[in-house]
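> call design_seq(struct)
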């Protein structure tokens, strides 16, 4: 089952009146992956998640869940989904335990010990007998996660887990999701309008804007993109590339379409590169250091997509 596809979203589009909420959207999720979907407000994340979970039944394109494509198979296989898209309805006067017990019976989960296990898993064992109305937002969200896991789903679909939480709640929920990802076999699809929220959680990232997928990268690729590097502009990039390889023994560089050279090798000083170029009669017209931070990168990606909307 390793790397088997749990979810396939093929060419899915959804329109609300004139509003194109999702456009020719493709996404594959493999078993064990934690896929983070990031995009600004109105990008289409909730629409995507609602389609996957069956809350929005009318759309164009295909959806395959645990191998099933047809309506009956999708309905059946949605049993293996745990979803948190809207706040679940908990009874304020009942304790966390009583609330979960209510849903355990309602959803036909036989294992009576499940509630205690879940409360421990989400870090609410000590407050299990406390009334829901006295819970902080972070505690409420952790209880919502416990509920989503009550039937031991295989895929957790979680829309904006930290939305509306205060900083302490954000940390609590982020830590819990990291723990779940580490300690369980869950496959997780999670969204956020803040890419850095997903940074230490997801194994793969999908960037969405205006209903379209505008970029996709793995955790490793993200780390590479965030590496700092030196940017050079010279009059002869072929010769410069040759010098980097022969004189400075590095292949950790790229020549961009704009004729810039980006050198990623952390063992080489910018001054050595510049000296080598100048000594070999290259004309150096630009030298700078580039270091991306995650939010800048995200804003660049989503703003570029906005300005280049027609061609993406
Ligand atoms: N039920 C609806 N009726 C009309 N328009 C809708 C509906 N649901 C979503 N939209 C529109 O579709 C687009 C995508 O919305 P969606 O809620 O999927 O985005 P999102 O990425 O989840 O945003 P947010 O981070 O604000 O929740 C938006 O322009 C939104 O206004």
């Amino acid at each position: 089952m390793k790397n088997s596809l749990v979810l396939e979203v093929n060419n899915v589009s959804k329109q609300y009146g004139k509003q194109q909420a999702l456009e020719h959207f493709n996404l594959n999720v493999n078993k064990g992956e934690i896929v983070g979907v990031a995009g600004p407000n109105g990008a289409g994340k909730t629409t995507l998640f609602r389609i996957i979970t069956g809350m929005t039944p009318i759309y164009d394109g295909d959806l395959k869940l645990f191998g099933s494509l047809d309506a009956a198979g999708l309905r059946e296989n949605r049993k293996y989904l745990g979803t948190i898209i809207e706040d679940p309805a908990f009874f304020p006067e009942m304790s966390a335990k009583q609330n979960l017990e209510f849903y355990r019976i309602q959803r036909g989960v036989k294992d009576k010990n499940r509630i205690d296990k879940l409360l421990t898993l989400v870090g609410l064992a000590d407050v299990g007998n406390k009334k829901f109305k006295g819970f902080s937002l972070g505690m409420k969200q952790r209880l919502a996660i416990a509920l989503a896991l009550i039937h031991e789903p295989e895929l957790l679909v979680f829309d904006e887990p930290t939305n509306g939480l205060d900083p302490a709640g954000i940390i609590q929920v982020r830590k819990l999701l990291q723990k779940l990802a580490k300690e369980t076999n869950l496959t997780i699809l999670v969204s956020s309008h803040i890419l850095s929220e997903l940074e230490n959680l997801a194994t793969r990232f999908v960037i969405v804007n205006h209903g379209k997928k505008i970029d996709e990268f793995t955790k490793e690729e993200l780390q590479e993109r965030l590496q700092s590097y030196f940017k050079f502009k010279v009059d002869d990039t072929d010769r410069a590339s040759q010098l980097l390889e022969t004189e400075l023994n590095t292949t950790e560089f790229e020549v961009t379409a704009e004729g810039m050279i980006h050198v990623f090798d952390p063992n080489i000083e910018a001054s050595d590169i510049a000296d080598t170029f100048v000594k070999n009669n290259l004309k150096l017209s630009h030298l700078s250091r580039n270091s991306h931070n995650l939010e800048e990168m995200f804003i660049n990606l989503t703003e570029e997509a906005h300005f280049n909307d027609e061609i993406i």
